[in-house]
Amino acid sequence: MELLVRLGHFFEQARSDADYATFANELRRHKVSYYIYFVSTGNMNFVMANDEVVSVKSARGLLRVRAEASH
């Protein structure tokens, strides 16, 4: 459970501060091979080095995503 909280925190920190270098270092330190971020829901899946999948659910509601810019 602690890992879920930490991964979610790292991701939100990277999004708000644009500190991607620290985010990438933390992912490597926690042995994350890659992650999938679902833009419309804010949910994330992290695939660990041992092929375990860790899911982090976002507390936000559904985000409307458009292919075209709104004016």
Could you characterize what this model shows?
The protein is an alpha+beta fold and 71 residues long. The protein has helices spanning 2-17, 20-29, and strands spanning 32-37, 44-48, 53-56. The chain has 2 helices and 3 strands. It has a 3-stranded antiparallel β-sheet with strand order 1-2-3. A hairpin with a 6-residue loop joins strand 1 and strand 2 (44-48). The radius of gyration is 13 Å and the shape is globular. The mean pLDDT is 81.
Present the secondary structure layout.
Elements: H1 2-17, H2 20-29, E1 32-37, E2 44-48, E3 53-56
Antiparallel strand pairs: 1-2, 2-3
| Subunit organisation of the chains | single chain
- Total strands: the figure is 3
Q: Note poorly predicted spans.
A: none
Radius of gyration computed on alpha carbons: 13 Å
Total helices: the number is 2
Shape: globular
Class from helix and strand fractions: alpha+beta
Helix and strand sequence: HHEEE
Fraction in beta strands: 15-25%
Overall mean pLDDT: 81
Helical residue percent band: 25-40%
Major β-sheet profile: 3 strands, antiparallel
The spatial strand order of the largest sheet comes to 1-2-3
CA(first)-CA(last) distance: 42 Å
